[in-house]
């Protein structure tokens, strides 16, 4: 699949590690992108963060404080990083019964959690918008 | 490029998993080099995939009876029986940037180390996606991978002469499948170095062949080194997690 065949949704913000973030009132919703789910392959289990957990925004070098959870596919277990610093407010517990919705609906049904951000205005500038993320995917080849 | 090669270790399941995680964490923190190691399980053990259900996969009573440890891995995949006498296990830790982003591509490169190693022993093997190595269509090695914190851990089996009957006692297979017919069909799908060669090479011979194989597949020189103090300390700190009921019974 070429980069242009992956869905990149307008209005969302994106991390280099292929997490998306949607700004809602006083909170953000987080998930993984269409590209990420395609690269992972069929998702068989999602380890969700604990509500109330504090997370840090993904940066280099990566560490465990930036981890929101893990996704196991038929290929491997991969970390899901947090695109924003804050506190986990809500998790998508539907994923425990139906992890495959990450594959079928990465931007809607397959959201992972809701985070109350610490400093949204500052941190959102470090994320990509849809246009920049599309370019980023193209350059990944 | 040089990667570190660690000496053959024989540890219990909990220590082995702790060492692998310590290497992954410290590699991600750029404090440990890219590393390949070969090791054995003592006692024999069953390892579970990161999120598998314990009760569903393992006959706990049989494990107790045979003195077999049970451990939950941080990698994905299925339940595996690891025979102290019959398996050489490998682990590889490197930066994510040192491998293709595509997971199957990275399996192909790393598993090619086993393919090349088996060739050294005179066994014609090939990579079978997603993560197996086969000889004439029969599995001889399986691997599992995790990518965390910017680094990659892959570990897997190299079957020398495992006790397949014991494996069936330990792993839960639906009762109707445990017939002689089913077991012989597994013998047709799985093979071992001993079966392919008609003799049993030593662990050291297999390891030497695998070292050459991994050097070729990864296009690196494997340079002998030791675990560092920091790695051993972190492994010692992580071991109790793997030995704990909470971790084992997580699912």
Automatic annotation (TrEMBL), chain A:
GO CC terms, sorted: cytoplasm; glycine cleavage complex
Gene name of this polypeptide: gcvH
SUPFAM superfamilies: Single hybrid motif
The protein, known as: Probable glycine cleavage system H protein
Reported function: The glycine cleavage system catalyzes the degradation of glycine. The H protein shuttles the methylamine group of glycine from the P protein to the T protein.
PROSITE patterns for the chain: BIOTINYL_LIPOYL
Source organism per UniProt: Hadarchaeum yellowstonense
Residues annotated as domain Lipoyl-binding: 27-116
Names of the cofactor(s): (R)-lipoate
InterPro entries in UniProt: Biotin_lipoyl, GCV_H, GCV_H/Fam206, GCV_H_sub, Single_hybrid_motif
Modified residues (N6-lipoyllysine): 75
Cofactor note: Binds 1 lipoyl cofactor covalently.
Keyword Ribonucleoprotein: no
Highest taxon above the source species: Archaea
Alphabetic keyword roster: Lipoyl
Similarity remark: Belongs to the GcvH family.
One GO term of the biological process aspect: glycine decarboxylation via glycine cleavage system
PANTHER family per UniProt: GLYCINE CLEAVAGE SYSTEM H PROTEIN, GLYCINE CLEAVAGE SYSTEM H PROTEIN-RELATED
Keyword rRNA processing: no
Assembly and oligomerization: The glycine cleavage system is composed of four proteins: P, T, L and H.
């Amino acid at each position: 699949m070429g980069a242009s065949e992956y869905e990149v949704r307008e209005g969302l913000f994106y991390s280099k590690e292929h997490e998306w973030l949607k700004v809602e009132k006083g909170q953000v919703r987080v998930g993984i992108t269409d590209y990420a789910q395609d690269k992972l392959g069929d998702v068989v289990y999602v380890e969700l963060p604990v509500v109330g957990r504090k997370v840090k925004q993904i940066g280099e070098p990566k560490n465990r404080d930036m981890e929101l959870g893990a996704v196991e596919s038929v290929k491997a277990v991969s970390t899901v990083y947090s695109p924003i610093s804050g506190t986990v407010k809500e998790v998508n517990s539907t994923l425990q019964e139906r992890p495959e919705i990450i594959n079928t609906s990465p931007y809607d049904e397959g959201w992972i959690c809701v985070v109350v951000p610490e400093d949204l205005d500052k941190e959102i500038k470090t994320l990509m918008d849809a246009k920049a993320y599309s370019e980023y995917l193209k350059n990944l080849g | 490029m040089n990667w570190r090669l660690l000496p053959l270790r024989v540890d219990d399941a909990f220590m082995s998993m702790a060492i692998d995680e310590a290497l992954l964490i410290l590699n991600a923190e750029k404090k440990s080099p890219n590393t390949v190691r070969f090791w054995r399980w003592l006692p024999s053990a069953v390892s579970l995939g990161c999120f598998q259900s314990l009760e569903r996969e393992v006959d706990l009573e049989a494990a107790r009876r045979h003195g077999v440890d049970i451990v939950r891995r941080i990698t994905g995949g299925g339940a595996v029986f690891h025979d102290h006498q019959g398996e050489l296990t490998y682990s590889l830790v490197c930066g994510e940037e040192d491998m293709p982003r595509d997971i199957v591509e990275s399996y192909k490169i790393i598993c090619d180390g086993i393919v090349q190693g088996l060739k050294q022993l005179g066994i014609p093997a090939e990579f079978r996606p997603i993560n197996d190595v086969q000889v004439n269509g029969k599995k001889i090695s399986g691997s599992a991978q995790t990518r965390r914190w910017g680094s990659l851990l892959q570990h897997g089996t190299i079957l020398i002469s495992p006790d397949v009957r014991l494996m069936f006692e330990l792993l839960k297979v639906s009762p109707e499948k445990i017939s002689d017919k089913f077991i012989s069909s597994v013998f047709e799908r799985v093979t071992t170095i001993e079966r392919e060669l008609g003799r049993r090479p030593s662990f050291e011979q297999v390891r030497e062949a695998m070292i050459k194989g991994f050097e070729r597949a990864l296009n690196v020189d494997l340079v002998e080194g030791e675990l560092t103090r920091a790695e051993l300390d972190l492994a010692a700190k992580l071991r109790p997690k793997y030995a704990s009921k909470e971790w084992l019974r997580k699912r």
